[in-house]
Every structure is written in C-alpha cells, then in structure tokens.
Write a structure and sequence with these properties.
It comes from Micromonospora echinofusca. The protein has 395 residues and is of the alpha+beta class. Helix content is 28%, strand content 27%. The structure holds flavin-adenine dinucleotide (FAD).
Length: 395
C-alpha cells in the first residue's frame, strides 16, 4: 500500500497550491481529486484579487467589519504571494494588478468607505479614498453618480483557468503523485498514520487505499462531508453564486471594480470580455431534502438582473451584449473568517476553506504547508483555527 508524507484531498486552487508548497519542500505528496483539476469553484470564479474588505463584510455594520478585518494580515500576505507566483511557477497565470476601486454613490456609502479605509489602514493596507475630479480622471469610464472610491493599487485579477492547472503542474514537477477521478470515501486514523479509502470518481480513476502521515482537506464545499469521515463536525456551508460575461470589447476598464453599498464586481479580461459578479446568489439544488453538491446551483432571475445593474456605474456596459451566465458554489463559515489549521484531537489532520479562497488561496497554502512541516504559521492563524468550533465536537 502507498504510504506518503501528506495526502491532499481536493484539486482546486487550495489543494494544488498546498501540494506544490509541500512537494517543493521535499515532502512525498499524494493529491487526490474526485473529478478533474480546477473543475469546481477554483475554475468558475471571478478571478478577483480583492484585498479590501468586501461588501459582504461591511454590509452588517461596523462590528462585523471589525471582525472581518482580523483576516487582513492574510490579505497583506496574499498581495505578496500573487506578485511572485508567475515567476515561481514559470508560467503565466493572468495576474494583473492595476488597482481596485470600491465605489460609493451616496453620502452614507461615502461614510462607510471612510470608516472602512481607516480600519484597513490600521492593519497596514495601502488604501486611499479618491473623490470628484481625481477619481473620474483615474477612471473616466465611471458614471457621474459615483462620488468616491477606495483605491488599492495592489488589487487586480488572475485567470482562474490558468492558475490552478499551473499549480498542479508545478506540484507534479516536484514529485507529487496526482490522481484525478479518485474520490476519497473514508478517513481512518490507524497506528500513527491516516488511511484513505477511495473509489473511482465520475471520470474514472484509480481507487484504492492509501496511507499518509498527515492529511490536508482542501475539499471546498465538500469540506464538512470530508471532515465527517474523520468524525469531525465543521460548520462550513455551501453558497451558490452567479457570474456573467459580456462579448469582447476594446480595453475599457483596467481596474477591479467593487461597490461598498451593494453586490458588485466588474473587471475586463485580457481577451476583452467584461466579467460581472460580486456575490449574487444562485439556488442550491436539493435532492431528498439534502443539498446536492454535485450539481451546479440554479440561476436566479434576480441575480442575473443584479449582475446587469453593473451598467449603473459603468455605463459603457449598456452597449455590450451579455454572452454567458454561470453559477458555482463556494463555502462560508458562520463568522465569515477562514477555516484554516490543524483539527483538534485529530493528529495530522489539517483543513482549509472559507473566506475569499481564490484571493487568499496561495497564502492559505503556504501557511498550511508551514503548519504541516514545522507546526508554525506566520502570520498567525490562531483566529481561523477549527478549534473555535470545538463545541460541536465531543470526541
Ligand atoms: C462564482 C464564484 C465566484 C467567485 N469569485 C471569487 C473571486 O473573485 N475572488 C475570490 O477570492 N474568490 C472567489 N470565489 C471563491 C473561490 O472560487 C473559492 O474560495 C476557491 O476557489 C476555493 O478553492 P478550493 O480549492 O478550496 O475549492 P474547489 O475549487 O471547489 O476545490 C475543491 C476540490 O475538492 C474536490 N473534492 C471534494 N471532495 C472530494 C473527495 N471526497 N475526494 C476527492 N476530491 C474531492 C472537489 O472535486 C474540488 O475539485 C468565487 C466562487 C464562485 C463559485
């Protein structure tokens, strides 16, 4: 039976990046993915690299914003990780950082923006609030109704179709054994190691039983199910999201656009398509009373019109045909903070999910690898530990 140092479960951005980090540090790594690499959230997302607090973090008031701001040290680390990743991998990932603008249209929104920027500066994020002529000179494509914007020069985008496959290739170059179409169905602690039972996934795969000293769960919306295999309950919830894309057009907007008062993300890809998202929900599909995680959520009409409302702040979008809308799923934790670290009372079991795990994924992976190899993480991940949900676990 194969025995490795670490088995990583999940071939999204988190799993591939963690496998890469561990393998390049010399570990023997097994990466197991039930479908294809990048098949789920990591390949379906908006590709926004947003380092400011998002709308969902400020919409519930100042206390909630202060709680979410505790993750800002991770955001600062992510700025550095994305600046370096293409050089480290030796291939393009579509990373471009021309800055991000978080818009405010009303006096109340401007006040939220000012408080948000003050909070972010306390954590060391470089953010400037622009208004009037300064803002419209930087972003002439914005509607005149936009009064102010929080500008973070480091924000931008990466191409979700390129990043995770590049990380997987790098992991394999460092010796990671990758099995796709291989679904983990059981996790048992034996004498000082973990035994992983698997079966061939929908795309066909090797199946079989594997041994590992440590296991990293990087299963996205399947995290609760995977943790359950080790008799651990983690409050990780799936949420459906909606994205839309326009036809290609000439370079229109170099920035990542978000809004401080409503759901919105807008950016233009290198190919000219404008992507619109920002957290508009999609309806999870239920079967026999349980959410079916294998099926993409259903589109909600209000979310499509929500996406289209992006034209209110970028009027040029009115002239562009919408060519595609899709849905995907991501994970949320009850406190909106990441879930990252060692699982208490399960020696050698680690987990990572939640938060903006595209933006923060490279950082989570570096920190996870550090914890697996040395038991330490810098910056500290104590605030994101699964231990905060210890009351759910009796054993
Ligand atoms: C529409 C949409 C837009 C988004 N936009 C952004 C954005 O702009 N910026 C941002 O930061 N974040 C964004 N996100 C969130 C981001 O995409 C996710 O947080 C991130 O991709 C999660 O990566 P992951 O590797 O944890 O999960 P995933 O990419 O879902 O990977 C998990 C993998 O685990 C595998 N797996 C699960 N169970 C098993 C098993 N039993 N055996 C083997 N394999 C298993 C799955 O098949 C899957 O491939 C968005 C998400 C969506 C859906």
């Amino acid at each position: 039976m194969n025995h490795v140092d670490t088995a990583v479960v999940g071939g999204g951005l988190l799993g591939c990046a963690t496998a890469w980090q561990l393998a390049r540090a010399g570990s023997r790594v097994l990466l197991l993915e039930k479908d294809q690499i990048n098949r789920h959230a990591s390949g379906q997302n908006a590709g926004s690299l947003h380092f400011q607090l998002e709308y969902r973090m400020v919409e519930h008031g100042d206390d909630a914003a202060r709680a979410a701001a505790r993750a800002l040290p991770l955001h600062l680390d992510a700025v550095r990780s994305w600046a370096a990743v293409e050089d480290e991998l030796g291939e393009p990932c579509g990373v471009s950082r021309h800055g991000g603008l978080m818009l405010a249209e009303t006096p109340a929104e401007v006040a939220v923006l000012d408080r948000k920027a003050a909070l972010e500066r306390r954590y060391g994020l470089a953010v400037e609030v622009l208004s009037g002529a300064d803002l419209h000179a930087l972003a002439p494509y914005l509607a005149p109704t936009v009064r102010a914007a929080g500008f973070v020069p480091d924000e931008g985008k990466a191409n979700p179709r390129l990043v995770t496959p590049a990380l997987a290739r790098a992991a394999v170059r460092y010796g990671t054994v990758l099995h796709t179409g291989c679904r983990v169905t059981g996790l048992s602690r034996r004498n000082g190691y973990w035994e992983l039972s698997t079966r061939a996934g929908a795309d066909g795969g090797p199946g079989g039983t594997y041994r590992a000293d440590t296991v990293v769960l990087a299963g996205g919306v399947w995290t609760a199910e995977l943790a359950g295999m080790a008799d651990v309950r983690l409050p990780v919830f799936p949420v459906g999201l909606t994205m839309s894309a326009t036809a290609r057009t000439a370079p229109l907007l170099p920035h990542l656009i978000q809004h401080v008062g409503r759901r919105l993300s807008v950016k233009q890809t290198a190919e000219g398509t404008v992507l619109i998202g920002g957290g508009w929900p999609a309806k999870l599909v239920s079967r026999s009373g349980r959410t079916d995680l294998e099926v993409n959520p259903e589109l909600r009409y209000e979310s499509l019109t929500g996406n289209l409302a992006a034209a209110r702040v970028v009027p040029a979008l009115l002239d562009l045909p919408l060519i595609r809308t899709w849905t995907g799923m991501t994970t949320l934790t009850p406190d909106q903070l990441p879930l990252l670290g060692a699982v208490p009372r399960r020696p050698g079991l680690f987990v990572a999910t939640g938060g903006s795990a595209f933006t923060l994924g490279l950082t989570y992976a570096r920190l996870l690898a550090g914890m697996v190899l040395t038991g330490t993480a810098d910056p500290s991940v104590a605030d994101y530990s699964p231990a905060r949900f210890g009351a759910l676990n009796f054993a």
